[in-house]
Design goal:
Blueprint lengths: L1 H16 L3 H11 L4 E2 L4 E2 L4 E2 L5 E3 L3 E3 L3 E2 L5 H9 L9 E3 L3 E3 L4 E2 L3 E3 L3 E3 L4 E2 L7 E4 L4 E5 H12 L16 H16 L2 H10 L1
Parallel strand pairs: 1-4, 2-5, 3-6, 4-7, 5-8, 6-9, 7-10, 8-11, 9-12, 11-13
Antiparallel strand pairs: 13-14
Length: 201
Amino acid sequence: MGFWRTLTGKLRQWWLSRLPPRDYAEYLKRKGVFHAMGENCAISPHASIHDMAFIQLGSNVRLSNCSLFGHDGSVNMINQALGTSFDAVGPIIIGDDVFVGHQAIILPNVRIGSRVIIAAGAVVASDIPSNSVAAGVPARVVRSFDEHVERVRRKNEGLPWLEQRAKGRDYDPAMEKRLRSVRAEYFLGARDREETAASNA
């Protein structure tokens, strides 16, 4: 019985790890593991999320391979060393329209406003206001969300594949192969040109 339960658990973990982020977020929402969760979220199955009962997510929250902690585990060592009974848990409250980048860490007792981007590798140990982009260790606001959107808009001017993308869509598997080819040629040049140049060298 224990073997089959273990095998079933491993198969479930394997299956969950292969879900697309939107499907994984919907799975977590159906399970009711967070204190609260809004609509249209996307969560990487490889995100490290602890103490979900203390976490509140708004709508359109995107969590990449980041870490969220609702506790400070160092108190366990302190309690053992000093014979104390300290506790160090706290909520993480995330507003609407928030992206948390790769390997960013959100610590307990943090409130992140709405329309916020947390940069890859940031460590968020204090509140981040709405309409901002935060980066660094510890994370600090580096520009407004609106300024960031304008930067992205300027970088996108003239990109030849934008008309092929459906507005508001995250990912379209039917278009992805074509988009990958067009992007690679735009950024790196056509592969056959590279091979021709290499053979002529």
